[in-house]
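Q: I'm building a small set of examples for a reading group on sequence design. Run inverse folding on the following structure and report the sequence directly after it, with nothing in between.
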């Protein structure tokens, strides 16, 4: 039998996000934890609510992902790099996430879903 592969539609991001991240607070917390895991020493969370379309902006000065990290870690659904690499590279911090990249994926998806609903 020929090799079979999963195929994901673009809407998969939204569907998967519904399973873990249920509210803005959880999504923001996960993104701040990602900044900590990226060795950020500064994280800014801004809430804009007087605009026609309220939004939350999160920015940090942590290490970004290389293209190789993006492909081999973040784009692998269900994979957690934190299982084999428990501390950060610069500050040797214990990584905070429990479920690896799926939570980041869900936080991202939650933001997309909320943007589409508004």
């Amino acid at each position: 039998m020929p090799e079979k592969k999963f195929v994901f539609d673009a809407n998969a991001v939204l569907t998967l996000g519904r399973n873990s991240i249920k509210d803005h607070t959880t999504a923001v917390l996960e993104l701040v934890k990602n900044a900590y895991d990226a060795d950020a020493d500064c994280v800014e969370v801004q809430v804009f609510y007087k605009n026609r379309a309220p939004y939350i902006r999160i920015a940090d000065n942590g290490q970004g992902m290389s293209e190789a990290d993006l492909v081999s870690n973040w784009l692998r659904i269900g994979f957690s790099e934190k299982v084999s690499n428990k501390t950060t590279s610069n500050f040797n911090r214990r990584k905070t996430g429990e479920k690896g990249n799926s939570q980041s994926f869900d936080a991202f998806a939650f933001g997309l879903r909320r943007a589409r609903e508004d």
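The first strand starts at residue 43 and ends at 48.
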